[in-house]
Task: structure prediction
Amino acid sequence: MGTDVSEPKIVVGVDGSTSSYAALRWAVRYAGLVGGTVDAVAVWELPGLYGWS
Result:
């Protein structure tokens, strides 16, 4: 039975805050050490539209 070894993937949520940017910097440094990749995720909510239900 074989074992697949894939590169580590690190997912970081970024919301524009100072702490989220610090987390992103840490993730990039860590990924460099372990040979991984970083996915930065930002999510926003669209403002409600008048009359939209």
